[in-house]
Design a protein that fits this description.
Length: 451
């Protein structure tokens, strides 16, 4: 065991050391060579160290270097050293975090983390929280609580009786809601397309003046904190009071945007969001902990418990918080460990710096590209930049050439009818030098495209 773990640590360190010198996207050859990991399932046992060596030799080169400082695709954070190291320790613990009795440390670290998170994310202190795999499941979990609560108000027990024959729920979303939110609505039996969509403005924000009349209950309104393209926030301060007056539930998909609350110069963006009823976010995005780490928060703790407890009655007060009473899964790893470690180690100042720094780099990208004559299509309020390098074909060619070059990685989108390259700065590992190198490469490739 000792030798094997030491070898794994050595490979991991070697991997991380070499990350800055390799292409951000793996080469086609490295992907081809993954076939070395296949073949028939061996009949005989072999040494674990041989398996580990094989994985490092063929697996490591076929990774995307998203753990490095020059990956700007999708909205993908890195992994803080403290999160990686505590993840190793927690894997050695091999805890089943479903119940307190199976892992006191897992349960307690979740509870501490949730309290700290409510403080830094500016959420109501009475919120119940759930540790889940990611933003998708965080939205699922929070919206399951919403579904419970809005139906309970009209006398329907959805956990017991299901949705057949239930009073129909009106679900309101913006036209730029994240695609996974529609998937979640499908999983919950609320329907991917059985929604009322509200038009958005030129930054993808729901137009409060275009909300339908809230004259039907039950209703759930889904807002967004951090549009995955523009970084923009829906106007919660205008919508929450209207919604609550009408008796509707307001849910916020804040997969990355909710972290703006922790940064003094961005805090204004979350104004009014803490008036909502539930929130979803990703710790694997902006807190930069290891996968998979989503978080759901629900103001009405009993609504979450009702939706997630294994058995009724769920109302009994326990001595301890049972993690699985708040989350869809029972057996799972102790996800609270890395979140606790990241928050404990960063402190308020470190977290603020992480968010501020990445936002600052996004502004730097935008300013520099604009100065070179390229169009930045969004208001860069957070960590997201949408840039066009001319017509659709030129932009697509620049993106393809940039990805092939390997210095950095950005993806393409079609956003509000425009082909754009999206730059998302979400990693602790990105440095001033990474930004400078990436910008120089973008400008060189875009200039070649111009001629
Ligand atoms: C990333 C993201 C999601 C989905 O989160 P996963 O962790 O990938 O499941 C949902 N909504 C928004 C706004 C996101 O940025």
């Amino acid at each position: 065991m000792d030798n094997l773990l030491q070898t794994a640590a050595m490979y991991a360190q070697e991997y991380l050391r070499e990350l800055g010198g390799r292409s951000v996207a793996p080469s086609a050859g490295a992907i081809d060579r993954l076939s070395a990991l296949g073949g028939p399932l061996p009949d005989a046992a072999s040494s674990p160290s041989e398996t580990l060596a094989l994985l490092h030799e063929f697996g490591s080169p076929a990774t995307v270097a998203s753990a490095g400082g020059r990956y700007f695709g999708f909205v993908i954070g890195g992994c803080l050293p403290v999160a990686l190291a505590t993840n190793w320790l927690a894997d050695a613990w091999d805890q089943n975090a479903g119940y307190f009795v199976r892992s006191p440390v897992g349960a307690v670290l979740e509870e501490i983390s949730l309290r700290w998170l409510c403080e830094v994310l500016d959420l109501p202190a009475q919120c119940a929280g759930a540790f889940v795999t990611g933003g998708t499941m965080a939205n699922f979990t929070a919206l399951a609580a919403a579904r419970h609560a809005v139906l309970a108000r009209v006398g329907w027990d959805v956990e017991r009786d299901g949705l057949f024959g239930a009073p129909p729920i009106t679900v309101i979303v913006g036209t730029e809601a994240h695609p996974t939110l529609r998937k979640v609505l499908g999983l919950l039996g609320l329907g991917r397309d059985r929604v009322v969509t509200v038009p958005v403005d030129d930054q993808g924000r729901i137009r409060a003046d275009a909300l339908p009349p809230l004259d039907w209950q039950p209703t759930i309104i889904c807002l967004q904190a951090g549009n995955a393209n523009t970084g923009a926030f829906d106007p919660a301060d205008a919508i929450c009071p209207l919604a609550h007056e009408a008796g509707a539930w307001v849910h916020v998909d804040g997969a990355f945007g909710l972290w703006a609350a922790a940064a003094p110069t961005r805090k204004h963006l979350v104004h009014g969001l803490n008036e909502a009823d539930s929130w979803a976010t990703d710790a694997h995005k902006w807190l930069n902990v290891s996968y998979d780490s989503g978080l759901a928060f629900v103001r009405d703790a009993e609504a979450l418990r009702a939706a997630m407890s294994v058995s009724a009655p769920y109302l009994s007060q326990d001595e301890v918080r049972e993690p699985s009473f708040f989350t869809p899964e029972t057996s799972r790893r102790a996800r609270g460990v890395e979140v606790w470690a990241a928050l404990r180690s960063l402190g308020r100042a470190g977290l603020a710096d992480l968010i501020e720094r990445t936002c600052h780099y996004a502004t730097q990208f935008a300013d520099c590209l604009r100065a070179a004559g390229y169009a930045v299509l969004n208001d860069v309020v957070l960590n997201q930049v949408l840039v066009s390098f001319g017509d659709a074909e030129s932009t697509q060619r620049v993106i393809a050439a940039l990805q092939a070059d390997g210095t950095c990685w950005c993806g393409g989108r079609n956003w509000q009818g425009h082909e754009v390259m999206r730059i998302s700065v979400s990693s602790w590992a990105t440095t001033e030098e990474d930004v400078a190198r990436s910008l120089a490469t973008m400008l060189r490739i875009a200039a070649q495209e111009r001629h």
